[in-house]
Amino acid sequence: MIFDEIVTGFRLAYGGAQERYNVTPDICTLGKIIGGGFPLAALGASTEIMQHFDKAVVGADKWLMQLGTLSGNPIAAAAGLKTMEILSREGSYDRLRAIGKALQKLQSTLLDEAGVAHKVCGDETLFDIYFTETDCRDYRSANHDDPARNAAYNRALRDNGIFKSPGKLYPSLAITQSDLEQTRDAVQQAVKALGMS
Question: Where are the domains of the chain?
C-alpha cells in the first residue's frame, strides 16, 4: 500500500494521513512540505523495501537506482527542518484546525444566509467549498453542480484581495485574525457577486 502524502503530509497531522487515520503504508511519498515549501521530496518505506536502494545489501540484480535533481538541496533541507520544528510546537495543529474551521464557517454561514447551495468537503486543514446540493463522500462526489459558479466565486474573492486556488483551501498558521476579517469581507462581496451572475 502506498500513501501519496504530497498534500496530506505534515498537514492532517505531524505524521500526515498515516497518523491521522492510524494506518502504516508500505511506502510513503512526500513533496515540498518536507522542504518547507522549497523543491524537495522524500520517499519512506520499511527497511525491507528501502534496502533495494543499497546495492551492497541486495546485490546488482535487486538494486534500484535512486537519485534526484534536488536531492540534498541545503536551502530546502534547512527550510524543511525549521517548518517541522514549528509544526512540532505544542498547539500548532489545534491552531491550524481552528483557523480552518473559522474559514469553513465564515464561508458556509454567508453562503447559507444568501441561500446558495453548497457543501464544505474535507478536513479543516484541507478542504473546499463545492457549489452543490449533493453530499461529498469521496473524490467522485466532490463536484460543482455549476463549475461557472465556482469560477465566479474565486474571481470575486481575487478581485477583493483574497487568492483562493480553483481547488482546495490550505489554511496556514500564518493567518491572523485580521486576515480572517479581510477574508470575511471578500467572501461577502463574492456571495453578492454570485447573486448578480
Answer: 2-87, 92-196
Helices (H), the chain: 16-21, 47-50, 55-58, 74-87, 92-113, 147-159, 177-196
Q: How far, CA to CA in Å, does 3 sit from each of 26, 33, 43, 68?
A: 8, 15, 10, 20
Tell me the C-alpha distance between 194 and 197, whole Å: 5
Q: How many CA atoms lie within 13 A of 19 on its CB side?
A: 10
Distance of alpha carbon 132 from alpha carbon 117, whole angstroms: 6
Structural element, H or E, at residue 43: strand 42-45
pTM above 0.85? Answer: yes
Task: Point out which residues pair with 121 in neighbouring strands.
Answer: 128
The C-alpha atoms of residue 187 and residue 74 are separated, in whole angstroms, by 40
Q: What are 90-143's pLDDT values in tens digits?
A: 999 999 999 999 999 999 999 999 999 999 999 999 999 999 999 988 878 888
Phi, then psi, of 128 in degrees rounded to 5: -150, 165
Nine cell digits for residue 71: 536531492
> What topology is assigned to 92-196 in CATH?
Aspartate Aminotransferase, domain 1 (3.90.1150)
